[in-house]
Amino acid sequence: MERVEIKVNGCILNYELARKMALAIASENEEDPMLISWNDRVRDKHSPSCMKCEIKGAPGWEVYGRNHGGRLRISVNDDEYVFIYS
Predict the structure, then answer these.
(1) What pTM was computed for the model?
(2) What CA–CA distance (Å, rounded) separates 1 from 15?
């Protein structure tokens, strides 16, 4: 899986802004990228939300993204927000 790291300084970042930035990056190489899974560490939320386990040290939502066609992992501010796209 390809990994992209985004660092944002100088503005207040929230989930919606982080999601829009990640989508813009994912759209560069894919016309209609699909968001497979995500994590919002700030609000302690993730999707799929039923995945609360860890598998070999990786959170369930991330394993789900990897195993369901995830090709691109976009991390914003050191995993404060993470988006996995197909």
Answers:
(1) 0.90
(2) 22
Which pLDDT belongs to residue 31?
84
pLDDT per position as a tens digit, 14-52: 999 999 999 999 999 788 999 999 999 999 999 997 655
Q: Residues with Cβ < 8 Å from 61, sequence gap 6 or more?
A: 37, 38, 39, 46, 47, 48, 49, 51
- CATH number of 48's domain: 3.30.1490.340
- Degrees to nearest 5, angle at CA 51 with 17 and 39: 15
Among candidate residues 46, 34, 40, 18, the one with its CA nearest the CA of residue 85? 34
The domain total for the chain is: 1
Range(s) of the domain holding residue 19: 2-85
CB-facing half-sphere around the CA of 85: CA atoms within 13 A: 22
Q: 10 pLDDT band (50/70/90 cuts)? A: very high
